[in-house]
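Students often ask why we bother encoding 3D structure as a string. The short answer is that it lets us treat folding as translation between two languages. Here is a chain of 271 residues written in the first language.
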Amino acid sequence: MSKHTQKIKDLYKNNKKSSLIWYLVLRALVLLTMILSLIRGEYSNVFLCLLTLILFLIPFWINEKLNISIPNVLEIIIFLFIFSAEILGEINNFYGNIPYWDTILHTLNGFLCAAIGFSLIDILNNSEKFHINLSPVFVALVAFCFSMTIGVLWEFFEFGADQILSTDMQKDRVIKQISTVTLEPEGKNKAVIIDDIEKTVIYNKKDEEIFETVIEGGYLDIGIIDTMKDLIVNFIGAVTFSAIGYFYIQNRDKYKFAENFIPIKKSLEKE
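And here it is in the second language, the structure alphabet:
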């Protein structure tokens, strides 16, 4: 038995059976995907599989190194989120084939990050080492801000990848109308509206040869709508959990279900 396998079993022998089962099943699917990608010569997908396996280890690292207990429900959601984003979303193109797949994941990301931000402050609030006692409103606000910061940083990453590596993480989409001051003939700060766009023709030059690309159905928006949509649904997820966290601090017994999403310090768990 490998050291890694033994460590996982030791960490999960108490009340962690369900999350361990999910981990093992999803890891097996990732390994299968990686083998198939190797056979097909799809090395970028192999890298994504390796990245997924590394991300799967984060809950174990938090449990062991930071002495923080992650609830079963939250841990399973984290595993499923990573698998859905990398293996289903990227490799199997669920982002392109399943409507609102990206929207669902960004909403869930906002919720999860708010839960993590909330737990960090709640742990400090309940720690004897720190002489602070933050109000429920402030804790909820910090959780919200933490989630939105993560969401913004991710959009920075997507923008950087698109600009530097020429990817399309900020998914483009065809739109029927644009509103821009750039086309104002006198250079005034007045938007010119062009609607009912039927098609866009793009001409580009390469090696002295002119190429024509026709976009049927409208004009190509290059990522801004996707970025703003992602931030809006991240906002919804963050607000949702921040509200839950606020009421949980007010009455921990009445809103006990929130504990399924809040990591806690193991010393507090025993108490």
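Translate back mentally: The beta strands are 68-69, 173-175, 178-180, 192-194, 199-206, 209-216, 219-221, 264-265. Keep this in mind for the problem set.
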